Amino acid sequence: MQYKLNYQQFSFGVQYLASDENLHMVGEGVKDLSAVLNFENSYGFSVIYQAPFELGLGLAYNVAKVSLAANGLKTEAVDDELISAHLTYRPYGSLGLHVALVVTEMKNHDINDLGQVMAKSSGIELFSAYRFENDISLIIGYNSLKDNSSFSSAHPDLGADGSYHKEYFILSAKYHWDEDFYLYIESKRDRSKLAAQTQSLAENATGIGMMFTF
User: Fold this and answer.
1) Exposed (0-12), middle (13-18) or buried (19+): which is 82, by Cβ within 10 Å?
2) What pTM was estimated for this model as a whole?
3) Does the keyword Zinc apply (predicted)?
């Protein structure tokens, strides 16, 4: 159930999701990991303000009941909470500069590569693009998901210890053939760190391609 309201420069949203769903997950870099996340009823709200000077400001909050079964143990149901704020400058794809920043604080929302619940975690997403009049765009991006948990001796197999950190940078150049088709070259520089110290999540990559949107 969802309700949206637009009033002048504001946009409000409220939603409620009634569910009892099991999600099966496989960890990163850990082939034998198999965890089941039980996701129950959730609700949330959001507000977006279109500010002067082509700025956009937004705030969102969501909470749900979740429990995790992994490594032969099952957690009690806890609140999965997320609060996120964003800032944007100018629409994406327009000539000139576009910037988008999202900052998120989470509780019991994500798992690390070992299938452990991150009691506290934070995320940052930064995307910036500059489109020139010759239809070439230069793009830089940054993505971070950091475990801020403290180790729990009560549930050592389910409590994350704060060592997990997914972090990478993106550099890209695009040529817009038209508004629906572009050619691109993109490079990813990865500085990620797994909770499993014996393995590495970091993977640098460079690729070229084309994309058509419709």
Assistant:
1) buried
2) 0.80
3) no
